[in-house]
Design a protein that fits this description.
The protein is built from two helices and no strands. It is elongated, with a radius of gyration of 14 Å. It is mostly helical.
Length: 68
């Protein structure tokens, strides 16, 4: 379980960096993500990032529940 979490965290970091770099390259502040329409490439990165966040939350929730 720990290695899965580490892999997901590494992928999340990679995707977040790509997303932020591409947002800046297009003249946007990454903090504006909720206020601007995203081009398809950025939307795909954003969706993948959100899915990774959800998976990590789910796995951590299961791990925390098993420990109690």
């Amino acid at each position: 379980m720990e290695s899965t979490i580490k892999q997901l965290e590494a992928r999340l970091l990679e995707i977040t960096e790509q997303f932020e770099q591409q947002m800046r390259a297009r003249g946007f502040d990454p903090q504006q993500v909720d206020n601007v329409p995203l081009p398809a490439a950025l939307a795909r990165l954003y969706i993948e990032r959100q899915e990774l966040l959800e998976k990590l939350e789910e796995i951590r929730g299961k791990t925390n529940n098993e420990g109690t």
